[in-house]
Amino acid sequence: EEDMSGWDRIRELYEKPSMERDVVERVARMSFLGGFLVGGSNGYLLAKQQYEMANKGRKYLSPSDAIKRRLDYAIVRFSMKGFSMGVKAALISGSITLLSTHTAAVSRHFSAFYFPAFSGPLAVLLHSVGGVFAFPTGMMGVAKAFGLGISSGLTLSAVCGLYALSIDRSVDSAYWHVKKEYEEVLEEEGSFEKRVEEVIAEQNVWRYQAVKIVKEEEDNKMKMLD
């Protein structure tokens, strides 16, 4: 691996199960879900106020019709605001995680300061170009976005540092230790999933039945080893 170029190391991450790729996907999904719920909730409350103001004095066919129309409007606004906020949250957190982990892969060294190093400039870029943050334009908005990015990155750095201390390792050593264990789990999950697909094809059973069969096979192997 020492003789591999940075590009080869990046390509290797996508040729086999890797912690870097899996973590980026998981962080992006979790961030989207969190952003969707928070953004949707805020959008729902705002939609309720806007609807009542815009339709004040309007006559409806019945009380149930009024409730239905208000609910339909709120659901649409919830979905729109939730999706928008979810995409922004996934973009921000996913980008920071991707840049940090892939930089470690290229350099073969991980530093907890990768997070603030990327989160600060990235926050400024997303605010300036995409208007992701609800900050005013101009230098004040840029400063607020940069501060938010740096503070978020430093929080992640602190988490990495505390974990490294808890297992009595350097941050770099702790990272590669976690990566090794993480990818061992990924390989086990991949092997299990492959066997499940084989059982489905061979025995023409439903997935839950195949999972049960594979688990029983593994239990029997463990009993034989004991």
UniProtKB/TrEMBL annotation:
* Top-level taxonomic group: Eukaryota
GO cellular component terms? membrane; mitochondrion
Q: What is its main location?
A: membrane
State the membrane topology.
Answer: Multi-pass membrane protein
Q: Name its GO BP terms in alphabetical order.
A: mitochondrial respiratory chain complex I assembly
Query: Which residues are listed as membrane-spanning?
Result: 27-47, 113-133, 145-165
State its location(s): Membrane
- Cite the entry's keywords alphabetically: Membrane, Transmembrane, Transmembrane helix
Question: Of which family is this protein a member?
Answer: Belongs to the Tim17/Tim22/Tim23 family.
Q: Which PANTHER family match?
A: C3ORF1 PROTEIN-RELATED (PTHR13002), COMPLEX I ASSEMBLY FACTOR TIMMDC1, MITOCHONDRIAL (PTHR13002:SF1)
State what protein this is by name.
Complex I assembly factor TIMMDC1, mitochondrial
Q: Which organism is it from?
A: Pristionchus mayeri
Phylogenetic classification of the source organism: Eukaryota, Metazoa, Ecdysozoa, Nematoda, Chromadorea
